[in-house]
Amino acid sequence: MGGSKSKEKQKEAKRNKQIEKQFREEKKSLDKQVKILLLGTGDSGKSTIVKQMQILYKGGFQEKEIEQYRKAIRTQIKGYIKVLIRACHESGFNLLEENQILAEDYIRTVKKNEPEITEQNKKDILKLWADPALKKAYKIHDQFQLPNVAKYFLDKTEEIAKEDFTPNEKDILNCRISTIGVKEIQFQVKDDDWRLVDVGGQRSERRKWIHQFDDIDMLIFVIAISEYNLSLYEEQTVNRMHESLSVFQKTVKNGFLKKKNIVLLFNKVDLFKEKIKKIPLTVCFPEYDDKQNFEKCGEYIQNKFKKSVKKSKGRSIKCHYTCATDTNLMKNVIEEVMHSVTAGQIKVFF
Ligand SMILES: Nc1nc2c(ncn2[C@@H]2O[C@H](COP(=O)(O)OP(=O)(O)OP(=O)(O)O)[C@@H](O)[C@H]2O)c(=O)[nH]1
Ligand SMILES: [Mg+2]
Predict the structure, then answer these.
(1) 325: closest CA among 270, 254, 256, 247?
(2) Whose CA is nearest to atom 32 of ligand 1?
(3) Predicted ipTM?
């Protein structure tokens, strides 16, 4: 009896040793991993950066993800038409007479969250999108929380409605699905293991951020620089740039992040370059009194963010302009950021 008991004990001790060994190995491999946390307010472009990582380092998208984007694109174009019809009503833009009843029926009958585009839906969308009043409303889409990409997708309605429509990389990069919770992507480049953590940026999601702070190697904060004239989706009276700046200021004060190096990505630079020619920066920063051009206005915004970070010895803050939907441009920025980590420029400062 006693013999079998001690054999059991030996077995258990062996099992424990194995578990400990496995635990040590897992910890070692996690220690070798570089963890990067992506933060920023909603719609700034965080998940688009993750998509680029998937394209560049993970061979693209899985069938399940493609299906998710196919459904989202179809649901969204149906919704865009609704927003545009309502925008026409609010702005006093009259639709063509032959489209007026159609528009009323469309608002009444097209349901939210229905990813199918029937033959009838397709015909209606094409007719309504061709109406000059909706085109006029699109020109002021900023006022209605309608994204730029609405035009890109509505122009592709015929293709999107086809039964065998498969979104390509460009479609996926342009399709917005707001992140809920925390998403992670792991990948390997040469001998280095990377872990990129993406969080939801809308107000209701931000309380989850803090759980990700303690063991990161670098913080990437994404700012949609083109959104200096837009109001927040969650609260119409708040300017999106002000919200981003205030969230950044609060975030960097957190004890866990005090000594972390930061990369600031001023994203949507493609839209910013166009917008700054037409809409003055003073709509966001009334005190701004320099030239109204990309260089000066961009520098002013960058400085606002940089100045919010308390200088600490050795901490580095780097800024980049980015266009997250452009794979080639992003590849350069991503590689530069990765290089700065693996070459030790960043890590030595912790
Ligand atoms: N034109 C342009 N569009 C961009 C750029 N970056 C992102 N977008 C678009 O902006 C939208 C929002 O991007 P996401 O990556 O989903 O934003 P997010 O920060 O993850 O948003 P949340 O998940 O809500 O926090 C998508 O439709 C993207 O295609 C850019 O540099 N230029
Ligand atoms: Mg996201």
Answers:
(1) 270
(2) 268
(3) 0.99
The verdict on the CB of residue 121 being under 6 Å from ligand 1 is no
Ligand nearest to the CA of residue 222, numbered in listed order: 1
Q: How far is the CA of 268 from the centre of ligand 1 (A)?
A: 8
Is the distance from the beta carbon of residue 244 to the nearest atom of ligand 1 less than 6 Å?
Answer: no
What gap in Å lies between CA 314 and CA 345, rounded to an integer?
A: 10
Residue 259 pLDDT more than 90?
no
- Nearest residue (by CA) to ligand 1, atom 7, is 45
Q: Is 125 assigned to a binding site?
A: no
Ligand 1 atom at shortest distance from the alpha carbon of 322:
31
Can you give the pTM of this predicted structure? 0.89
- Residue 80: the pLDDT is 97
Would the CB of 178 count as within 6 Å of ligand 1?
yes
Asked if 331 and 323 touch (Cβ cutoff 8 Å), the reply is: no
- Residues 317, 345: Cα–Cα separation, whole Å: 12
DSSP assignment string, 115-180: ----HHHHHHHHHHHTSHHHHHHHHTGGGGT--THHHHHHTTHHHHHSTT----HHHHHH------
Instruction: Report the C-alpha gap between 34 and 192 in whole angstroms.
Output: 8
Whether ligand 1 lies within 6 angstroms of the CB of 329 is answered as no
Q: d(Cα 240, Cα 16) in Å, to the nearest integer? A: 53
Domains, the chain, with CATH or none: 36-61+179-343 (3.40.50.300), 63-173 (1.10.400.10)
Instruction: Decide if pLDDT at 296 tops 90.
Output: yes
Rounded Cα gap, residues 51 and 323, in angstroms: 13
Q: Check the annotation: does 179 bind a ligand.
A: yes
Hey, CA dihedral for 30, 34, 37, 38, is it positive or negative?
A: negative
- From the CB of 179, is ligand 1 less than 6 Å away? yes
Mean pLDDT, the chain, rounded, equals: 91
Q: CB atoms < 10 A from the CB of 84, how many?
A: 27
Ligand that comes closest to the CA of residue 324 = 1
